[in-house]
Amino acid sequence: MTEIVRSTAAALAERLAAGEVTSTELTEAHLDRIDAVDGAVHAFLHVDRDGALADAAESDARRARGEARGPLDGVPIAVKDVLTTRGLPTTCGSRILEGWIPPYDATVVTRLREAGLPILGKTNMDEFAMGSSTEHSAYGPTRNPWDLDRIPGGSGGGSAAAVAAFEAPLAIGTDTGGSIRQPGAVTGTVGVKPTYGGVSRYGLVALANSLDQAGPVTRTVLDAAMLHDVIGGHDPRDSTSIAQEWPSFTEAARAGSTGDMTGVKVGVITELAGEGWQPGVMARFQESVDLLVKAGAEVVEVSCPSFVHALAAYYLILPAEASSNLAKFDAMRFGLRVVPDGDPSAEEVMRATRDAGFGDEVKRRIILGTYALSSGYYDAYYGQAQKIRTLISRDFDAAFGSVDVLVSPTAPTTAFRLGEKLDDPMAMYLNDLATIPANLAGVPGISVPNGLADEDGLPSGFQVLAPALADDRVYRVGAALEAMYAEQWGGLLLDRAPGLETE
Protein backbone atom coordinates (compact mmCIF):
# COMPACT_ATOMS: atom_id res chain seq x y z
CA MET A 1 0.00 0.00 0.00
CA THR A 2 1.38 3.38 -0.96
CA GLU A 3 1.93 6.26 1.42
CA ILE A 4 -0.68 8.27 -0.47
CA VAL A 5 -3.68 6.16 0.48
CA ARG A 6 -2.70 6.14 4.16
CA SER A 7 -2.51 9.95 4.32
CA THR A 8 -5.25 12.07 5.86
CA ALA A 9 -7.26 14.39 3.64
CA ALA A 10 -5.67 17.42 5.31
CA ALA A 11 -2.19 16.07 4.55
CA LEU A 12 -3.17 15.36 0.95
CA ALA A 13 -4.55 18.89 0.62
CA GLU A 14 -1.22 20.31 1.81
CA ARG A 15 0.73 18.18 -0.66
CA LEU A 16 -1.56 19.26 -3.50
CA ALA A 17 -1.10 22.92 -2.56
CA ALA A 18 2.68 22.47 -2.45
CA GLY A 19 2.73 20.79 -5.85
CA GLU A 20 4.21 17.58 -4.41
CA VAL A 21 1.47 15.40 -5.88
CA THR A 22 -1.34 15.74 -8.40
CA SER A 23 -5.02 14.96 -8.03
CA THR A 24 -4.66 12.43 -10.83
CA GLU A 25 -1.99 10.58 -8.85
CA LEU A 26 -4.14 10.63 -5.71
CA THR A 27 -7.21 9.44 -7.53
CA GLU A 28 -5.39 6.68 -9.39
CA ALA A 29 -3.82 5.46 -6.13
CA HIS A 30 -7.22 5.17 -4.46
CA LEU A 31 -8.82 3.53 -7.50
CA ASP A 32 -5.98 1.00 -7.52
CA ARG A 33 -6.55 0.41 -3.83
CA ILE A 34 -10.23 -0.22 -4.49
CA ASP A 35 -9.31 -2.73 -7.18
CA ALA A 36 -6.96 -4.48 -4.76
CA VAL A 37 -9.15 -4.84 -1.68
CA ASP A 38 -12.80 -4.11 -2.38
CA GLY A 39 -13.46 -7.64 -3.52
CA ALA A 40 -13.00 -8.57 0.13
CA VAL A 41 -14.50 -5.48 1.79
CA HIS A 42 -17.36 -4.69 -0.63
CA ALA A 43 -17.52 -1.05 0.41
CA PHE A 44 -18.55 0.15 -3.06
CA LEU A 45 -21.62 -0.56 -5.16
CA HIS A 46 -20.38 1.47 -8.11
CA VAL A 47 -16.90 2.80 -8.95
CA ASP A 48 -16.67 5.65 -11.45
CA ARG A 49 -13.05 5.36 -12.61
CA ASP A 50 -13.45 7.41 -15.77
CA GLY A 51 -15.44 10.19 -14.11
CA ALA A 52 -13.12 10.42 -11.11
CA LEU A 53 -10.01 10.63 -13.29
CA ALA A 54 -11.63 13.25 -15.52
CA ASP A 55 -12.50 15.35 -12.45
CA ALA A 56 -8.97 14.89 -11.13
CA ALA A 57 -7.48 16.10 -14.43
CA GLU A 58 -9.67 19.21 -14.29
CA SER A 59 -8.52 19.83 -10.71
CA ASP A 60 -4.88 19.59 -11.79
CA ALA A 61 -5.52 22.06 -14.59
CA ARG A 62 -7.13 24.52 -12.13
CA ARG A 63 -4.20 24.29 -9.74
CA ALA A 64 -1.77 24.83 -12.62
CA ARG A 65 -3.64 28.08 -13.36
CA GLY A 66 -3.63 29.07 -9.66
CA GLU A 67 -7.44 28.69 -9.50
CA ALA A 68 -7.93 26.00 -6.85
CA ARG A 69 -11.50 26.10 -5.53
CA GLY A 70 -10.49 25.40 -1.94
CA PRO A 71 -8.15 23.30 0.18
CA LEU A 72 -9.84 20.00 -0.71
CA ASP A 73 -9.84 20.62 -4.47
CA GLY A 74 -8.46 17.40 -5.97
CA VAL A 75 -8.89 15.18 -2.89
CA PRO A 76 -11.08 12.17 -3.88
CA ILE A 77 -14.21 11.17 -2.00
CA ALA A 78 -16.79 8.36 -1.81
CA VAL A 79 -20.54 9.02 -1.54
CA LYS A 80 -23.19 6.88 0.16
CA ASP A 81 -25.61 5.46 -2.38
CA VAL A 82 -28.59 7.26 -0.84
CA LEU A 83 -27.57 10.61 -2.37
CA THR A 84 -28.57 11.24 -5.96
CA THR A 85 -25.70 11.58 -8.43
CA ARG A 86 -26.31 12.81 -11.96
CA GLY A 87 -25.24 10.18 -14.46
CA LEU A 88 -24.28 7.62 -11.79
CA PRO A 89 -26.49 4.84 -10.38
CA THR A 90 -28.34 5.55 -7.13
CA THR A 91 -29.90 2.38 -5.71
CA CYS A 92 -30.18 3.02 -1.96
CA GLY A 93 -28.99 -0.58 -1.58
CA SER A 94 -32.34 -1.80 -2.95
CA ARG A 95 -33.39 -3.96 -5.90
CA ILE A 96 -36.36 -1.68 -6.46
CA LEU A 97 -33.98 1.06 -7.69
CA GLU A 98 -31.50 -1.21 -9.45
CA GLY A 99 -30.10 0.57 -12.48
CA TRP A 100 -31.77 3.93 -11.77
CA ILE A 101 -29.59 6.85 -12.88
CA PRO A 102 -30.79 10.21 -11.51
CA PRO A 103 -30.96 13.25 -13.81
CA TYR A 104 -29.76 15.58 -11.05
CA ASP A 105 -27.29 15.84 -8.17
CA ALA A 106 -28.12 16.15 -4.50
CA THR A 107 -27.04 19.52 -3.11
CA VAL A 108 -24.29 17.80 -1.10
CA VAL A 109 -22.96 16.25 -4.31
CA THR A 110 -23.23 19.58 -6.15
CA ARG A 111 -21.14 21.22 -3.45
CA LEU A 112 -18.54 18.45 -3.62
CA ARG A 113 -18.26 18.93 -7.37
CA GLU A 114 -18.10 22.72 -7.01
CA ALA A 115 -15.28 22.33 -4.48
CA GLY A 116 -13.37 20.10 -6.93
CA LEU A 117 -13.48 16.73 -5.12
CA PRO A 118 -13.37 13.79 -7.58
CA ILE A 119 -16.11 11.27 -6.74
CA LEU A 120 -14.67 7.75 -6.66
CA GLY A 121 -18.05 6.04 -6.54
CA LYS A 122 -21.11 5.10 -4.48
CA THR A 123 -20.85 3.12 -1.25
CA ASN A 124 -22.89 0.19 0.02
CA MET A 125 -25.61 0.61 2.63
CA ASP A 126 -28.51 -1.13 4.34
CA GLU A 127 -31.51 -0.96 2.02
CA PHE A 128 -33.01 2.54 2.20
CA ALA A 129 -30.78 3.10 5.25
CA MET A 130 -32.71 0.61 7.37
CA GLY A 131 -30.23 -1.30 9.50
CA SER A 132 -27.24 -1.20 11.81
CA SER A 133 -24.86 -3.59 10.06
CA THR A 134 -25.01 -3.11 6.24
CA GLU A 135 -26.21 -6.72 6.06
CA HIS A 136 -29.58 -5.57 4.73
CA SER A 137 -28.16 -4.38 1.41
CA ALA A 138 -29.76 -6.13 -1.55
CA TYR A 139 -26.26 -6.37 -3.04
CA GLY A 140 -24.57 -8.22 -0.20
CA PRO A 141 -22.95 -7.13 3.06
CA THR A 142 -19.94 -4.90 3.55
CA ARG A 143 -17.20 -6.28 5.80
CA ASN A 144 -15.23 -4.56 8.54
CA PRO A 145 -11.58 -4.00 7.49
CA TRP A 146 -10.48 -4.77 11.07
CA ASP A 147 -11.98 -8.27 10.83
CA LEU A 148 -13.63 -9.39 7.61
CA ASP A 149 -15.97 -11.70 9.53
CA ARG A 150 -17.54 -8.73 11.32
CA ILE A 151 -19.97 -5.97 10.40
CA PRO A 152 -18.81 -2.41 9.62
CA GLY A 153 -21.87 -0.86 11.24
CA GLY A 154 -24.88 0.53 9.45
CA SER A 155 -26.63 1.80 7.60
CA GLY A 156 -23.57 3.54 6.16
CA GLY A 157 -21.10 0.73 6.65
CA GLY A 158 -19.86 1.11 3.09
CA SER A 159 -18.67 4.68 3.61
CA ALA A 160 -16.99 3.84 6.93
CA ALA A 161 -15.36 0.70 5.54
CA ALA A 162 -14.07 2.58 2.48
CA VAL A 163 -12.31 5.09 4.73
CA ALA A 164 -11.06 2.43 7.17
CA ALA A 165 -9.72 0.25 4.34
CA PHE A 166 -7.86 3.23 2.82
CA GLU A 167 -10.00 3.07 -0.32
CA ALA A 168 -11.01 6.73 0.09
CA PRO A 169 -9.64 9.50 2.30
CA LEU A 170 -13.12 11.02 2.71
CA ALA A 171 -16.71 9.83 2.43
CA ILE A 172 -20.24 11.10 2.84
CA GLY A 173 -22.71 9.21 5.02
CA THR A 174 -26.20 9.85 6.31
CA ASP A 175 -27.36 9.58 9.91
CA THR A 176 -31.01 8.84 10.73
CA GLY A 177 -30.46 7.15 14.08
CA GLY A 178 -26.68 6.81 14.22
CA SER A 179 -25.77 5.58 10.74
CA ILE A 180 -22.65 7.76 10.55
CA ARG A 181 -21.55 7.61 14.18
CA GLN A 182 -22.11 3.90 14.90
CA PRO A 183 -20.14 2.72 11.82
CA GLY A 184 -17.44 5.20 12.84
CA ALA A 185 -17.21 3.60 16.27
CA VAL A 186 -16.87 0.01 15.02
CA THR A 187 -14.39 0.80 12.20
CA GLY A 188 -12.10 3.24 14.04
CA THR A 189 -13.12 6.20 11.89
CA VAL A 190 -14.55 9.64 12.67
CA GLY A 191 -18.25 10.21 11.95
CA VAL A 192 -20.21 13.44 12.34
CA LYS A 193 -23.96 14.03 12.45
CA PRO A 194 -24.48 17.78 11.92
CA THR A 195 -27.31 19.80 13.43
CA TYR A 196 -30.55 18.90 11.65
CA GLY A 197 -30.90 21.43 8.85
CA GLY A 198 -27.22 22.29 8.83
CA VAL A 199 -26.54 20.24 5.68
CA SER A 200 -29.04 20.17 2.82
CA ARG A 201 -31.30 17.15 2.44
CA TYR A 202 -32.21 18.00 -1.17
CA GLY A 203 -31.47 14.91 -3.25
CA LEU A 204 -31.10 12.66 -0.21
CA VAL A 205 -33.56 9.80 -0.80
CA ALA A 206 -35.66 10.09 2.32
CA LEU A 207 -36.02 7.37 4.91
CA ALA A 208 -37.47 9.56 7.68
CA ASN A 209 -37.63 13.24 6.77
CA SER A 210 -37.52 14.57 10.32
CA LEU A 211 -34.48 12.48 11.23
CA ASP A 212 -32.19 12.11 8.17
CA GLN A 213 -28.99 14.16 8.03
CA ALA A 214 -25.95 13.86 5.75
CA GLY A 215 -22.47 14.30 7.22
CA PRO A 216 -18.74 13.53 7.01
CA VAL A 217 -17.02 10.15 7.37
CA THR A 218 -13.24 10.57 7.74
CA ARG A 219 -10.06 9.43 9.48
CA THR A 220 -9.53 12.55 11.59
CA VAL A 221 -11.61 15.27 13.22
CA LEU A 222 -9.85 17.94 11.14
CA ASP A 223 -10.72 16.09 7.93
CA ALA A 224 -14.37 15.94 9.03
CA ALA A 225 -14.40 19.66 9.82
CA MET A 226 -12.89 20.54 6.43
CA LEU A 227 -15.48 18.40 4.65
CA HIS A 228 -18.31 19.85 6.75
CA ASP A 229 -17.27 23.34 5.68
CA VAL A 230 -17.69 22.21 2.05
CA ILE A 231 -21.10 20.53 2.28
CA GLY A 232 -22.79 22.66 4.96
CA GLY A 233 -24.80 25.84 4.73
CA HIS A 234 -28.25 27.02 3.70
CA ASP A 235 -30.01 25.58 0.67
CA PRO A 236 -33.24 27.25 -0.52
CA ARG A 237 -34.28 23.97 -2.19
CA ASP A 238 -34.54 22.30 1.22
CA SER A 239 -37.38 23.59 3.39
CA THR A 240 -35.69 22.21 6.52
CA SER A 241 -32.37 23.97 5.79
CA ILE A 242 -31.31 26.55 8.40
CA ALA A 243 -30.72 30.02 6.98
CA GLN A 244 -27.81 31.32 8.99
CA GLU A 245 -24.07 31.85 8.78
CA TRP A 246 -22.02 29.00 10.24
CA PRO A 247 -18.59 29.35 11.85
CA SER A 248 -15.54 27.66 10.36
CA PHE A 249 -15.52 24.11 11.66
CA THR A 250 -11.94 23.77 10.41
CA GLU A 251 -10.91 26.54 12.79
CA ALA A 252 -12.80 24.87 15.65
CA ALA A 253 -10.99 21.57 15.03
CA ARG A 254 -7.60 23.27 14.83
CA ALA A 255 -8.32 25.10 18.09
CA GLY A 256 -9.26 21.85 19.81
CA SER A 257 -6.17 20.04 18.56
CA THR A 258 -4.08 21.94 21.12
CA GLY A 259 -5.61 19.60 23.68
CA ASP A 260 -6.60 22.41 26.06
CA MET A 261 -10.08 21.83 27.51
CA THR A 262 -9.85 24.49 30.23
CA GLY A 263 -13.25 26.00 30.89
CA VAL A 264 -15.20 23.27 29.09
CA LYS A 265 -17.90 21.57 31.16
CA VAL A 266 -18.62 17.99 30.11
CA GLY A 267 -21.71 16.01 31.12
CA VAL A 268 -21.58 12.20 31.28
CA ILE A 269 -25.05 10.83 30.46
CA THR A 270 -25.91 8.38 33.25
CA GLU A 271 -28.64 6.63 31.23
CA LEU A 272 -26.19 5.57 28.51
CA ALA A 273 -24.24 3.02 30.53
CA GLY A 274 -24.76 0.00 32.74
CA GLU A 275 -26.10 -3.50 32.14
CA GLY A 276 -25.67 -4.73 28.57
CA TRP A 277 -22.76 -2.43 27.74
CA GLN A 278 -19.56 -4.25 26.80
CA PRO A 279 -16.98 -3.92 29.62
CA GLY A 280 -14.15 -3.07 27.23
CA VAL A 281 -16.21 -0.31 25.63
CA MET A 282 -16.96 1.17 29.06
CA ALA A 283 -13.29 0.92 30.07
CA ARG A 284 -12.21 2.88 26.99
CA PHE A 285 -14.97 5.43 27.65
CA GLN A 286 -13.77 6.05 31.21
CA GLU A 287 -10.21 6.47 29.96
CA SER A 288 -11.42 9.11 27.52
CA VAL A 289 -13.26 10.97 30.27
CA ASP A 290 -10.12 10.88 32.40
CA LEU A 291 -8.13 12.36 29.50
CA LEU A 292 -10.58 15.25 29.21
CA VAL A 293 -10.24 15.92 32.93
CA LYS A 294 -6.46 15.88 32.56
CA ALA A 295 -6.82 18.42 29.74
CA GLY A 296 -8.66 20.80 32.05
CA ALA A 297 -12.32 19.95 31.46
CA GLU A 298 -14.81 19.85 34.33
CA VAL A 299 -16.78 16.59 34.23
CA VAL A 300 -20.13 16.01 35.92
CA GLU A 301 -22.82 13.35 35.68
CA VAL A 302 -26.04 14.41 33.97
CA SER A 303 -29.35 12.56 33.98
CA CYS A 304 -31.55 12.60 30.88
CA PRO A 305 -34.42 10.37 32.11
CA SER A 306 -36.41 10.34 28.87
CA PHE A 307 -33.49 8.82 26.97
CA VAL A 308 -34.56 5.37 28.19
CA HIS A 309 -37.64 5.69 25.98
CA ALA A 310 -35.77 6.99 22.93
CA LEU A 311 -35.37 3.61 21.23
CA ALA A 312 -39.08 2.79 21.45
CA ALA A 313 -40.13 6.24 20.26
CA TYR A 314 -37.67 6.16 17.37
CA TYR A 315 -38.86 2.79 16.13
CA LEU A 316 -42.39 4.15 15.85
CA ILE A 317 -41.55 7.54 14.32
CA LEU A 318 -39.05 6.21 11.78
CA PRO A 319 -41.25 3.37 10.38
CA ALA A 320 -44.21 5.74 10.18
CA GLU A 321 -42.25 8.23 8.09
CA ALA A 322 -40.64 5.43 6.07
CA SER A 323 -44.02 3.90 5.29
CA SER A 324 -45.14 7.21 3.82
CA ASN A 325 -41.88 7.90 1.96
CA LEU A 326 -41.61 4.47 0.36
CA ALA A 327 -45.16 4.62 -1.02
CA LYS A 328 -43.74 6.39 -4.09
CA PHE A 329 -42.02 3.19 -5.21
CA ASP A 330 -45.11 1.92 -6.99
CA ALA A 331 -43.71 0.44 -10.25
CA MET A 332 -45.41 3.21 -12.21
CA ARG A 333 -42.88 6.05 -12.35
CA PHE A 334 -39.33 4.72 -11.99
CA GLY A 335 -37.35 1.74 -10.82
CA LEU A 336 -38.26 -1.95 -10.89
CA ARG A 337 -41.52 -3.19 -12.42
CA VAL A 338 -42.69 -6.78 -12.01
CA VAL A 339 -45.71 -7.75 -14.13
CA PRO A 340 -47.52 -10.95 -13.02
CA ASP A 341 -48.83 -13.38 -15.60
CA GLY A 342 -52.18 -12.76 -17.21
CA ASP A 343 -53.82 -9.35 -17.33
CA PRO A 344 -52.84 -7.85 -13.94
CA SER A 345 -54.33 -4.67 -12.55
CA ALA A 346 -52.17 -1.72 -11.54
CA GLU A 347 -52.59 -2.77 -7.91
CA GLU A 348 -51.37 -6.30 -8.68
CA VAL A 349 -48.32 -4.94 -10.53
CA MET A 350 -47.58 -2.67 -7.58
CA ARG A 351 -47.93 -5.53 -5.09
CA ALA A 352 -45.68 -7.85 -7.09
CA THR A 353 -43.07 -5.15 -7.61
CA ARG A 354 -42.89 -4.13 -3.96
CA ASP A 355 -42.76 -7.77 -2.88
CA ALA A 356 -39.83 -8.50 -5.19
CA GLY A 357 -38.09 -5.15 -4.82
CA PHE A 358 -38.08 -4.65 -1.05
CA GLY A 359 -36.10 -6.77 1.42
CA ASP A 360 -37.34 -8.20 4.71
CA GLU A 361 -36.24 -5.29 6.92
CA VAL A 362 -37.88 -2.70 4.67
CA LYS A 363 -41.10 -4.71 4.61
CA ARG A 364 -40.96 -5.08 8.38
CA ARG A 365 -40.72 -1.33 8.91
CA ILE A 366 -43.37 -0.48 6.32
CA ILE A 367 -45.80 -2.80 8.10
CA LEU A 368 -44.95 -1.37 11.50
CA GLY A 369 -45.21 2.22 10.28
CA THR A 370 -48.49 1.68 8.46
CA TYR A 371 -49.95 0.09 11.59
CA ALA A 372 -48.76 2.97 13.79
CA LEU A 373 -50.42 5.50 11.48
CA SER A 374 -53.66 3.59 11.01
CA SER A 375 -57.02 4.76 12.27
CA GLY A 376 -57.48 3.90 15.92
CA TYR A 377 -53.78 3.46 16.61
CA TYR A 378 -52.31 6.84 15.60
CA ASP A 379 -52.81 8.47 19.00
CA ALA A 380 -51.84 5.36 20.95
CA TYR A 381 -48.54 4.82 19.13
CA TYR A 382 -47.31 7.55 16.78
CA GLY A 383 -48.80 10.37 18.85
CA GLN A 384 -47.27 9.03 22.05
CA ALA A 385 -43.89 8.60 20.38
CA GLN A 386 -43.93 12.26 19.36
CA LYS A 387 -44.63 13.24 22.95
CA ILE A 388 -41.57 11.24 24.05
CA ARG A 389 -39.60 13.08 21.37
CA THR A 390 -40.58 16.37 22.98
CA LEU A 391 -39.47 15.11 26.39
CA ILE A 392 -36.09 14.06 24.97
CA SER A 393 -35.60 17.54 23.49
CA ARG A 394 -36.43 19.01 26.90
CA ASP A 395 -33.88 16.72 28.55
CA PHE A 396 -31.25 18.02 26.14
CA ASP A 397 -32.25 21.63 26.82
CA ALA A 398 -32.03 21.09 30.57
CA ALA A 399 -28.66 19.34 30.31
CA PHE A 400 -27.15 21.99 28.07
CA GLY A 401 -28.26 24.60 30.57
CA SER A 402 -25.52 23.33 32.88
CA VAL A 403 -22.87 21.75 30.59
CA ASP A 404 -21.26 22.60 27.26
CA VAL A 405 -21.32 19.09 25.79
CA LEU A 406 -22.66 15.65 26.66
CA VAL A 407 -20.65 12.46 26.22
CA SER A 408 -21.25 8.72 26.09
CA PRO A 409 -19.92 5.63 24.34
CA THR A 410 -21.06 5.73 20.70
CA ALA A 411 -22.26 2.13 20.62
CA PRO A 412 -22.86 -0.44 23.39
CA THR A 413 -20.51 -3.01 21.82
CA THR A 414 -17.77 -3.39 19.27
CA ALA A 415 -18.50 -4.91 15.85
CA PHE A 416 -20.39 -8.18 16.07
CA ARG A 417 -20.00 -11.07 13.65
CA LEU A 418 -21.81 -11.14 10.33
CA GLY A 419 -25.11 -12.98 10.73
CA GLU A 420 -24.98 -12.87 14.52
CA LYS A 421 -28.02 -10.60 14.92
CA LEU A 422 -29.55 -10.80 11.47
CA ASP A 423 -32.53 -12.87 12.63
CA ASP A 424 -33.09 -10.84 15.81
CA PRO A 425 -34.36 -7.36 14.87
CA MET A 426 -34.62 -6.19 18.48
CA ALA A 427 -30.98 -7.08 19.19
CA MET A 428 -29.99 -5.21 16.02
CA TYR A 429 -32.00 -2.12 17.00
CA LEU A 430 -30.24 -1.92 20.37
CA ASN A 431 -27.01 -0.95 18.60
CA ASP A 432 -28.51 2.53 18.11
CA LEU A 433 -29.24 3.03 21.81
CA ALA A 434 -26.72 5.83 22.36
CA THR A 435 -27.06 7.60 19.01
CA ILE A 436 -30.83 7.87 18.54
CA PRO A 437 -31.53 10.69 21.05
CA ALA A 438 -29.49 13.16 18.98
CA ASN A 439 -31.58 12.48 15.88
CA LEU A 440 -34.86 12.82 17.75
CA ALA A 441 -33.77 16.24 19.07
CA GLY A 442 -31.84 17.38 15.97
CA VAL A 443 -28.62 18.11 17.86
CA PRO A 444 -25.10 17.53 16.45
CA GLY A 445 -22.84 14.66 17.44
CA ILE A 446 -19.45 13.19 16.64
CA SER A 447 -17.90 9.77 17.18
CA VAL A 448 -14.13 9.72 17.73
CA PRO A 449 -12.05 6.50 17.95
CA ASN A 450 -10.95 5.93 21.54
CA GLY A 451 -9.09 2.65 21.52
CA LEU A 452 -9.55 -1.10 21.31
CA ALA A 453 -11.76 -3.15 23.61
CA ASP A 454 -9.81 -5.66 25.69
CA GLU A 455 -12.15 -8.56 24.89
CA ASP A 456 -11.68 -8.61 21.12
CA GLY A 457 -9.14 -5.96 20.13
CA LEU A 458 -11.74 -4.12 18.03
CA PRO A 459 -12.35 -0.35 17.91
CA SER A 460 -14.78 1.53 20.11
CA GLY A 461 -15.99 5.11 19.84
CA PHE A 462 -16.48 8.14 22.07
CA GLN A 463 -19.57 10.26 21.34
CA VAL A 464 -19.74 14.03 21.91
CA LEU A 465 -23.11 15.82 21.64
CA ALA A 466 -23.69 19.59 21.63
CA PRO A 467 -26.69 21.93 21.45
CA ALA A 468 -28.32 22.55 18.08
CA LEU A 469 -26.29 25.03 15.99
CA ALA A 470 -23.22 24.48 18.21
CA ASP A 471 -21.49 21.98 15.91
CA ASP A 472 -18.19 23.75 16.50
CA ARG A 473 -18.18 22.39 20.06
CA VAL A 474 -18.16 18.73 18.94
CA TYR A 475 -15.20 19.50 16.68
CA ARG A 476 -13.29 21.26 19.43
CA VAL A 477 -13.80 18.50 22.02
CA GLY A 478 -13.36 15.71 19.46
CA ALA A 479 -10.11 17.19 18.17
CA ALA A 480 -8.76 17.60 21.69
CA LEU A 481 -9.43 13.96 22.55
CA GLU A 482 -7.99 12.82 19.22
CA ALA A 483 -4.81 14.84 19.82
CA MET A 484 -4.31 13.30 23.25
CA TYR A 485 -4.80 9.80 21.87
CA ALA A 486 -2.50 10.49 18.89
CA GLU A 487 0.25 11.44 21.34
CA GLN A 488 -0.43 8.33 23.40
CA TRP A 489 -0.60 5.97 20.40
CA GLY A 490 1.99 7.67 18.23
CA GLY A 491 -0.58 8.20 15.48
CA LEU A 492 -4.16 7.34 14.59
CA LEU A 493 -6.05 4.25 15.71
CA LEU A 494 -6.29 3.16 12.06
CA ASP A 495 -2.50 3.03 11.93
CA ARG A 496 -2.81 0.04 14.29
CA ALA A 497 -5.38 -1.80 12.14
CA PRO A 498 -4.36 -5.25 10.94
CA GLY A 499 -3.70 -5.47 7.22
CA LEU A 500 -6.43 -6.88 5.02
CA GLU A 501 -5.93 -10.45 3.96
CA THR A 502 -5.79 -9.29 0.37
CA GLU A 503 -2.76 -7.02 0.96
Layout: helices, strands, pairs:
Layout: H1 3-6, H2 9-18, H3 23-41, E1 44-47, H4 49-64, E2 77-80, H5 107-114, E3 119-123, H6 157-164, E4 170-174, H7 181-187, E5 190-193, E6 214-218, H8 221-231, H9 249-256, E7 265-269, H10 279-294, E8 298-302, H11 310-325, H12 346-357, H13 360-373, H14 379-400, E9 405-409, H15 425-429, H16 436-441, E10 445-452, E11 459-465, H17 471-489
Parallel strand pairs: 2-3, 2-4, 7-8, 7-9
Antiparallel strand pairs: 1-3, 4-6, 5-6, 5-10, 9-11, 10-11
Helix pairs in contact: 3-4, 8-9, 8-17, 9-17, 11-13, 11-14
Task: Tell me what the structure shows.
This protein has helices spanning 3-6, 9-18, 23-41, 49-64, 107-114, 157-164, 181-187, 221-231, 249-256, 279-294, 310-325, 346-357, 360-373, 379-400, 425-429, 436-441, 471-489; strands at 44-47, 77-80, 119-123, 170-174, 190-193, 214-218, 265-269, 298-302, 405-409, 445-452, 459-465. It is α/β, with parallel strands linked by helices. α3 (23-41) runs antiparallel to α4, α8 runs antiparallel to α17 (471-489) and α11 crosses α13. It is built from 17 helices and eleven strands. The chain has one domain: Amidase signature (AS) domain (Amidase signature (AS) enzymes, Alpha-Beta Complex), CATH 3.90.1300.10.
